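A reminder from the course coordinator: this example appears on the midterm review sheet, so study it carefully.

Given structure:
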């Protein structure tokens, strides 16, 4: 009876570990920003901050536009981005994690990563404006073009912004490859450090299931690892990673590649059809 209980316990642990491996939350360093119309404060991950320190500036709902505008510096800098004001051009430049937005006062067209876009295609009146000597930007346009999601809570007059930084740059959560019976499959990824400090990332490549004679590895700067490795990245440094799957004979396989930093993890599921 004791042996049966131990066996059941081990099976539960095995299933729990594998469940967490496959279904662990993928996009980390999450930020939730909540601001309210007519309130000079916002919260970033429950930490209260002044929107415009020392000036008591509040978000304004422009009823004719149906849009909220506010000074955005505290939001951008809290996310690790940069914001610049060019007085001669009356231009605001915002840079965050590879995205760049240029906006001009009283101009309904902005430039996003080199492309001109209307701030609101349905209303040409929506534009950056100045109220009480403060530059007020349409928050939905800026946030969404930086990769954030934006929700408007009508009853509470609140804006909720969610943003997730990523270490694996420009990737899909699942990758599918169809390979021959004897072939080397290659997947190229790019890692990027979005934080304002040097960090060490732990990397791992696991097989969920595969034919016994299939082999997998990942390589960084000509150094290859069969299961686990690590890499140090400076602020905003980028580094390529190559993942190789060697098929030997017919079959299907499933692998998972993960990047971990402290208690955060991003994973990519790789499914292979061999032969």
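Designed residues:
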């Amino acid at each position: 009876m004791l042996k049966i209980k131990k066996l059941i316990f081990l099976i539960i642990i095995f299933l729990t570990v594998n469940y967490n491996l496959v279904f662990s939350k993928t996009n980390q360093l999450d930020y939730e920003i909540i601001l309210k119309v007519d309130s000079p404060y916002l919260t970033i991950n429950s930490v209260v901050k002044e929107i415009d320190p020392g000036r008591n500036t509040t978000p304004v709902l422009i009823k004719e536009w149906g849009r909220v505008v506010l000074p955005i510096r505290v939001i951008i800098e809290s996310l690790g981005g940069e914001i610049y004001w060019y007085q001669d051009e009356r231009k605001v430049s915002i840079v965050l994690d590879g995205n760049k937005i240029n906006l001009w006062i009283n101009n309904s067209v902005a430039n996003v990563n080199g492309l001109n876009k209307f701030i609101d295609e349905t209303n040409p009146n929506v534009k950056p404006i100045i109220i009480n000597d403060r530059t007020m930007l349409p928050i939905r346009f800026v946030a969404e073009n930086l990769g954030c999601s934006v929700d408007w809570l009508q009853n509470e007059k609140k804006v909720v912004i969610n943003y997730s930084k990523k270490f694996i740059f420009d990737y899909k959560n699942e990758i599918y490859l169809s390979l021959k019976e004897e072939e080397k499959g290659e997947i190229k990824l790019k890692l990027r450090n979005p934080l304002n400090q040097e960090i060490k990332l732990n990397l791992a490549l696991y097989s969920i299931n595969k034919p016994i004679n299939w082999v997998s590895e990942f390589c960084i700067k000509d150094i290859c690892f069969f299961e686990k490795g690590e890499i140090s990245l400076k602020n905003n440094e980028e580094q390529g990673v190559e993942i190789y799957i060697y098929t030997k004979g017919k079959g299907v396989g499933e692998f998972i590649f993960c990047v971990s930093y402290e208690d955060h993890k991003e994973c990519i599921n790789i499914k292979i059809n061999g032969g």
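The first helix runs from residue 2 to 23. The chain is about 15% helix and 55% strand.
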